[in-house]
Amino acid sequence: MRSEFTVAVHCLALLAYLPDHRASSELLAHNVSTNPTRIRKIMSTLKKSGFVKTKEGIGGGYELNCQPAEVTLAEVYRSICGGTLKPHWSSGNPEEKCLVSANMALVMDGFFREAELYYEEYLERNTLQTVLERLRQCQQKTARGETHVHEY
Amino acid sequence: MRSEFTVAVHCLALLAYLPDHRASSELLAHNVSTNPTRIRKIMSTLKKSGFVKTKEGIGGGYELNCQPAEVTLAEVYRSICGGTLKPHWSSGNPEEKCLVSANMALVMDGFFREAELYYEEYLERNTLQTVLERLRQCQQKTARGETHVHEY
DNA sequence: TATACTGTAATAATATTTCATACAGTTAGC
DNA sequence: GCTAACTGTATGAAATATTATTACAGTATA
Q1: Which end of chain B is more exposed for a tag (fewer CB within 10 A), N or C?
Q2: Which Gene3D superfamilies is this protein grouped with (chains A, B) (predicted)?
Q3: How large is the average pLDDT for residues B1-22?
């Protein structure tokens, strides 16, 4: 579920990076290395949260609907997979009389929920702009001085 | 992988809770609601990190080897599943010429690694003692005034 | 009206997680 | 020494979650 967050950030970053800030699900899918259906599902969620606009029909696709410097990763995270840091599996058994077994699931839920807030606090400090900056830092490291042909 | 953390905390908390701080993998497995093999694997890791002592043979089992108030959840977390917050799936394709596609995996890795530090920072503030306290709070809420028979 | 899109459902393929079984090695007590 | 009750670990099966594929209805453009 957390890889959906990666995909969402990737798509938003790519839209921010592209000169016209627009792309189809097929183009996004190829760039992300996944399939268009997955992209459409995730972008559909991002649309509901207002990060992108969509246009159906010929010449349609997805268009960035926000300022890269103003959208934090925490907002994207919550939109896509907030509350998913706790594991699916739960420990103990509520039917048991033992204090530990009966309540451990509940207690751990609390810890995971609170820890997630700290997690989000970090994401809060980073925006789509930060992502673009880090991408450009990669470029400087791997191909200092060279110019790339960008094949979207 | 993060549910292993839950199991580890559960086992350590139970050992801390039990009067003699000792239990076999079978007893732990039943209390946690899982199988002894899983418990032994996790406890084996906790042993290597020094949180518990083990004794093989008749009358053997696991024994707490630390002070509940001094062991933070962050230490347990790192012992069991540090570095597992980033998803298995990676976005993009390093072979692509596009800056975004080529480097997104690397950039997201960085974010996940740093976010995990914030996550651990929260766990740092909580110890096995905290877990026991929260368990007792559950008891107060659900069965105020009643005495429980504890069937380990 | 044909074409190129999104939105979404349904299902297949794959990967991960959890469980079950088995057995070698260890220790204690008889 | 022998047996019984443990841990440590390997291996494979079962259950579950994730990702990919296919299909098609709805929409906008030319």
Answers
A1: N
A2: Winged helix-like DNA-binding domain superfamily/Winged helix DNA-binding domain (1.10.10.10)
A3: 96
